[in-house]
Here is the input.
Amino acid sequence: MEGEGVAPDIEVINKPADVIAGRYPQLERAVAEALELIKTQEVISKLKPAAPNRWHRPEGWEKEVEQSNQ
Here is the structure.
């Protein structure tokens, strides 16, 4: 692996003329591949977790404050 790199799953040839023209062959191929995968594979989105409750103090915090003040 060292000094060799990893062979790509999908080979895309980047021609200078495409880049100069403002096209991105790798990105275009990746988007096309993703759209094909969406057609053939089910997409399951995860539920968004509840926001953390940052203002709530844990039970027993008053005792800890009293002990640290003594």
Notes: The two ends are 62 Å apart (CA to CA). Helices lie at 16-20, 25-40, 61-69. The chain has three helices and no strands.
